[in-house]
Design a protein that fits this description.
With 287 residues, the chain is mainly β. The protein has 4 helices and 21 strands. The chain has a 9-stranded antiparallel sheet with strand order 2-3-4-7-20-10-11-12-13, with no helix packed on it. 29% of the residues are buried.
């Protein structure tokens, strides 16, 4: 949504308004108070299918422009500089919404678990968050040899849901079989492993890497979102990017980046079985 058009779309100077049909030739526009101009609707077209975006990618295409457009639709006169100074505060204070998927944190480290005797309470099945934020998890899995042993559908549940841009979800992982299933699950996405691929599921679609975690071996893994791109790295190997073929104007397909949020509500809980070592979520991309 083009903010330059919104704030400078009047051919006679100034901001756009619903009575402006032509932003270059004012003679093609009615008067501002014309009674036949009832209002304005802004559509977002997805003619070529959901392969173009996740639900929250669609939100980001509207995020910064829609409030500005609404101001002009309702006859407001806020300036571009005033808007730029205000919009961040408005997003942060919008009630009952968190479309940016932010998580409150005292530092850049949002949550960290170390599965050893100092972080697991065998009586209450609580796994302490070592970040200082108090995001303690609960589990019905066994904890042994400094790892969470995900077996028979057990899981670790976090008091979180999803993390938007930017983030790095770091963890050590050792699958014990090739069974397909979720490793990390969240409100907007699932990181899933199988014998032939590693997938990120979001908005009903799976975005796959031509990579699978080695069975019976420990891997130091990172799921990274950097702006509108999402990566996975294993040990010291080059980062792999989650991409998809996107339709362009009904004419061709191109490979494009995907922006997918971190799944941080649970570990395990499905058919996948393996061990998870230390796990950490930070609010920046470790590029």
């Amino acid at each position: 949504m083009n903010q330059t058009f919104i704030f400078e779309g009047n051919p006679e100077g100034g901001a756009w308004s619903p009575y402006i049909f032509d932003s270059t030739n004012s003679t093609n526009n009615p008067k501002r108070d014309n009674p036949y101009v009832l209002g304005h609707i802004a559509p977002q077209w997805n003619d070529y299918g959901a392969n173009a975006s996740t639900y929250l990618e669609a939100y980001y295409s509207w995020r910064d422009g829609l409030p500005a457009l609404a101001d002009k639709q309702w006859g407001g006169n806020i300036s571009r500089s005033e808007y730029d100074a205000l919009i961040g505060k408005l997003h942060a204070s919008a009630p009952a919404q968190n479309l940016d998927r932010t998580i409150k944190s005292a530092s850049s480290t949002i949550v960290r678990y170390s599965f050893n005797q100092t972080s697991a309470n065998e009586t209450t099945d609580v796994v302490k968050d070592l970040s200082g934020n108090g995001y303690d998890g609960t589990t019905n899995c066994s904890i042994s040899s400094a790892s969470l042993q995900v077996r028979n559908g057990c899981s670790l549940t976090l008091p979180l849901a999803s993390k938007g841009e930017d983030y790095t979800l770091s963890f050590s992982v050792k699958p014990i079989s090739g069974s397909a299933g979720p490793i990390f699950s969240g409100q907007d996405s699932v990181l899933q492993s199988s014998e032939s691929s590693l997938d990120l599921l979001s908005s009903g679609y799976a975005y796959a890497l031509n990579y699978s975690l080695p069975i019976g071996e420990w891997t130091q893994a990172k799921l990274i979102r950097n702006g509108n791109r999402t990566f996975f790295s294993a040990d010291d190997s080059p980062k792999m990017e989650f991409i998809t073929r996107v339709g362009v104007n009904g004419e061709r397909f191109e490979w494009e980046s995907m922006a997918i949020n971190a799944p941080v509500h649970s570990i395990g809980g499905g058919a996948w079985e393996g061990d998870i070592g230390e796990a950490e979520l930070v609010d920046y991309a470790k590029v």
